Amino acid sequence: MRLKEAATWALAAAATIAVTGGLISCKTGPLTACKAVTVTGDETFYMPVLALVYAVYRGATGVVLVSSLLAASSATVFLKALIGSPRPPPEEWLVEASGPGFPSGHATLSAAFWTAAYGLSRDPRILLLGVLHASAVSYSRVALGVHYPVDVIGGLLVGSSIAALVYAFINSRGLFPGVPLVLVASLLLSVIASLLDPSYQSSLKLSGLTLGSLAGYTMVIARYPDSLGAGGLSHRAIAGLIASAAHVAPLLAGDLGAPAAIPVFALYALAVALSRPIALLLAPGRIGESRLG
After folding, report:
1. Sign of torsion over alpha carbons 35, 38, 43, 47
2. Mean pLDDT over the full length of the chain
3. What is the pLDDT of residues 226-249, one digit of tens each?
4. What is d(CA 50, CA 62) in angstroms, rounded to the nearest whole number?
5. Contact at 8 Å (CB) between 41 and 132?
6. Which of 10, 140, 200, 224 yields a CA-CA distance of 20 to 30 A from 290?
7. What pTM was computed for the model?
C-alpha cells in the first residue's frame, strides 16, 4: 500500500474514532466533547476549512464545495425566516443559539459538506465519515437543548438534497456558467430571508459571503481558469497564506453592526477567491488541470 493511501486510511480511521467518541459523549456525558462536536457544524468551522481546501488542495474542488454550502445555507436561512419555527425554551439551552429553529443550520452545513465531498471523491470512506459526522453534529444540537429532532432532520434533508442538486448542476453545466448561476440563486434567497426577518444576522452575513463569492469565483473561472488546478508547493503556500490572512475580516466583523458586516464578509470571500490567481501571478509556473474532485 502506498504511503499516501496508508495515510488517508489512517486519517479516516482517526477521524471516525473522534466523531464516534463525540457522539457517545453527547449521549452519556461529559458534555465537553459534545460541545466540541457541535462546533464542527458551525459556519465559523467551515469557513476556514473551505478556504484552505480551495487555496491549498485544488481550486475547482473548493469552488464546488463553497457553492454547495452557500446554496444549502441560503435555502436554510430562507426557510428559517419564512417559517419562523421556535427553538426549545432558552432555559434548556446548554450552548448559545440564535434565530428560528427549523431547519438546523449545523445539520444543514454538515450534510451539505459531506454530500458534496462524496460526490467529488466517490470515496466510501468519505461517505462513512460524513454519515457519522453529520449524525453526531445533529444529535449534539438536540442533546444541547437548542433544537428539536425535527429541526435537525429537516437540516439533514435540506443540506444533502441541495448539495446533490448543486453538484449535479455544476457537473452538467461546467464551472461556468454553473457556479455563477448557483450563487445568483443563493444570493436571492439570502436577500429575501433578510427582508423577511431583518433581525436575523446570519442571513446578512450569508448575503455578504455569497456576494463576494459570486464576484470572486466568476472572475477567477472566466479570466483565470488555469489557477484552479492543483498547483505546486509555492502556489499552494502563497494562496494558503492569502486565504488565512483574509480571516482577519470576519473577526473584525464581530464588533460591527449587522449592516456593516455585509461588505466585510463580501471582501473576505472575494479575497479567498482571488488567492489562487494572485499566487499564480506572484509565483508563475505550471498548474495542473482544474478538474473536479
Report:
1. positive
2. 89
3. 889 877 888 899 999 999 999 887
4. 6
5. no
6. 10
7. 0.91
